[in-house]
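Most newcomers find our protein records easier to grasp once they have seen one. A record pairs a protein's sequence with a compact description of its fold. An example says more than a description, so a record of this kind follows:
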Amino acid sequence: METISLEPVDAVTITILVDNLTDVFMPDEGPAHRFPLTSPSAPRRPASTLEGGEVVEQLHGEHGFSALVTSRTGEREHRVLFDAGVSPDGLVENMRFLDLTPGDIETVVLSHGHFDHTTGLDGFVRAVGRANVPVVIHPEFWNRRRLTLPGREPWELPTTSRSALEDAGFEIVEERQPSFLFERSLLVTGEVDRTTEFERGFPLQQALREGTWEPDPLVLDDQALLLNVRDRGLVVLTGCGHSGIVNTVRYAQRLTGIDRLYAVVGGFHLSGPIFEPLVPAVCAAFAELAPEVIVATHCTGWRAIQQLAAAFPDAFVPSCVGTRFEL
């Protein structure tokens, strides 16, 4: 594979806007900075049952993922929204709480088409009026899909409407191959090569093709975001990691020619009985890859998080909604 030169940035901040967990008592740790409950900027709302008649609002956790990626090189900053969460308003409400402005976002990158990563675009559009930003996706993002859970009727997943995004002002950019943003300083992987023996995608998934439901385990639209932090190495950000978190990291290294792995952040999709048996192999691979920072979010699963934290006590940093990772 011919490598792609990824220009270094001076610093990256990844702010977790949507995630499964909220925890007001989680302390700052390493590169992680939490939003304090006692911050004077925390919004308040009426609460008739409390003395004083109001309460400090909380960040909302939900089964979805979204992150604001801010890269800095010299005096220049760029802001990318990576995924949008599962509810129409969770993303924008958490941004409001964190005093972040949706209109500052320059580009949206969606890791894949599952609705727990896309639905928050509804609130984003209502917040900015008209999007007028590109949204970068894989061509199979639009697939109609369903899950075939054992002992249950198949469940069709909600699908994002192309016409709705276009009507909202988004410029839809479909790329199967890797694509650059911002003077070659941020790279969207596009379709990830599958090379590991143990990561086999999402076997419960089917896609509707020419009127017939067919197995669709590979989730080919699954893509990651890559940055190269000067003198530190590669940062890999995933949504669910349906391509396999080890697969994705190794592909990122081959794609960029950068072996040094600084941080792996995002969903690793190791939750539940199908995926939990893979955790020891993931830990063994991470021992070789040697990331300095591991941040496992969203669909990683608590058993996988427990094992990763035990195996990599110096690298593992817990995440929750509102955390700012300064890398």
Remarks:
- The chain has one domain: 8-35+59-192+203-326.
